[in-house]
Amino acid sequence: QRFPVVVIGAGPAGLTLGNILRAASVDCVVLEAQSREFIERRPRAGVLEEWAVRGLERRGLAGNLLARAQRHTECEFRFGGQRRRLPYAELTGLHHFVYPQPWLVTDLVREYADVRGGDIRFGVRDVRLHDLGTDRPSVSYRCPESGERRVIRCDFVAGCDGARGVTRAAPPAHRTRTARHDYGVGWLALLAEAPPSSDCVVFGVHPAGFAGHMARSPEVTRYYLQCPPGDDPANWPHERVWAELRQRLAAADAPPPAEGRLIEKRVLDMHNLVVAPMAYGRLFLAGDAAHLTAPIAAKGMNLALHDAFLLGDALTGYLTRGDEGGLAGYSAACLRRVWDYQEFSQWLAEVFHGPASGDPFRAGTALARLHRLFDSPGAAGAFAEQYLGGSPLGSG
Ligand code: FAD
Questions:
Q1: What's the domain range around 85?
Q2: Which CATH number covers residue 96?
Q3: What is the pLDDT of residues 239-292, one digit of tens each?
Q4: Which of 35, 141, 259, 303 is most enclosed, with most CB atoms within 10 A?
């Protein structure tokens, strides 16, 4: 078999890319290790920046999102027993769109496979990449039903297989460089069957550790609790979780978080990672396969979409018009936004974690950053711009 493009991974990056290629009549196949039911239910992110939503809209991929997503206009910091709101939409004219990742993935799979007639193979095993440094690469995988190994010849491979995929490690070690930053903390990521307790994202900055509240849908809310890295979720029974959330999110006039059954409870070791360049030969990496940002500033899914927009346009330009410019500039164009978001995440992480670090100097400077956000309109404006990721016209 032969396809111009093989896309590995059906997350937000791979599916958006597949849709862009199909719309330009570029043939491709998407290979996904999990089943369709699994990827349509996997809970993860939920916050999209306005430029990303407009990028999806321009490509005919935001119909359901625009009809169903909540639009958020501000976020709230709770510290020292007070609550302070930062009205980012007023400051930038831009919104956050709250739309659970499984809903977006469901929309993208439907559009790719059922509407645009794209080829997608679920449950593939043992994906391997071959001859990436030549102009005749190929991808092989083991078929889930027969166990037989199939080979697909192609012109390009898009590595969109997330943080634990195989494509990041495919280039020879001396051809890529991995930069990693470890925060030295864990976050207990929780999903509660409970309505949101606030109409916006809430960041609880507390000496006992950070706590976060993020709406997902009217029935489900995501919470985070800072914990030691590598902590065991079993150390966090229902009663302890809700007691810590009540304590760390407490502020004058703030109602306690609405309690509900915990349907997800896992510990994330907070680290960031960037692979550069994001291309080797005929392989182009996109999304979490190339870079990870801990969910501190809700950036990961947005970056995955940014890469997919650029890669989709670059591959289409090359395969339909012979234009090499997009592919040549792909890695540098992606990495510019990636590093900008990494720097913002690192800045915000220090605000969240400094007060519980046990180091009075870090606690003092973290609180100074927080106070500056509310004392200085310039600082508030800069924060809002970075939190929203900039102009909807800028990129994507
Ligand atoms: P993925 O979504 O990981 O998709 C990769 C796909 O490849 C998967 O379907 C996987 O099954 C498949 N795959 C893996 N290996 C193989 C293989 N060998 N062969 C074939 N297929 C394979 N981001 C935000 O922007 N906002 C948030 O609020 C936010 N919150 C988050 C909360 C949590 C708890 C977590 C874990 C992440 C969060 N993120 C958030 C990050 C966001 O979920 C990711 O950045 C996003 O999923 C990246 O998309 P992707 O398409 O690059 O990778």
A1: 1-396
A2: 3.50.50.60
A3: 999 999 999 999 998 999 999 999 999 999 999 999 999 999 999 999 999 999
A4: 303
Asked if 262 and 241 touch (Cβ cutoff 8 Å), the reply is yes
Q: How confident is the model at residue 394 (pLDDT cuts 50, 70, 90)?
A: low
Q: Tell me how far CA of residue 168 lies from CA of 76, 139, 165, 276, 292, in angstroms.
A: 37, 14, 7, 10, 12
* ipTM surpasses cut 0.85: yes
Exposed (0-12), middle (13-18) or buried (19+): which is 346, by Cβ within 10 Å? middle
Question: Which protein residues touch ligand 1 with a CB less than 6 Å away?
Answer: 8-14, 31-34, 39, 44-47, 101, 124, 127, 160-162, 164-166, 189, 287-288, 295, 298-302, 304
CB-CB contact of 377 with 385 (8 Å): no
Assign 208 to helix, strand or coil.
Answer: coil
Neighbours of 296 (CB within 10 A): 25
The helix (run of H) or strand (run of E) holding residue 155 is strand 149-159
Compute the distance from residue 321 Cα to the ligand 1 centre, in Å. 31
> What are the residues whose beta carbons fall under 8 Å from the beta carbon of 371, sequence distance 6 or more?
none
Q: How close is the Cα of 44 to the center of ligand 1, in Å?
A: 8
Pairing state of beta strands 96-98 and 70-72? antiparallel
Domain count for the chain, please give it: 1
Mean predicted lDDT score pLDDT of the chain? 96
Residue of 96, 103, 266, 301 to mutate, ligand 1, most atoms within 8 A of C-beta: 301
pLDDT tens-digit readout, 168-210: 999 999 999 999 999 999 999 999 999 999 999 999 999 999 9
12: tokens are 């937000």
Q: Of all residues in the chain, what percent carry a pLDDT higher than 70?
A: 98
Cα–Cα distance for residue pair 31/36, rounded to 1 Å = 11
Give the three-class secondary structure for 200: coil
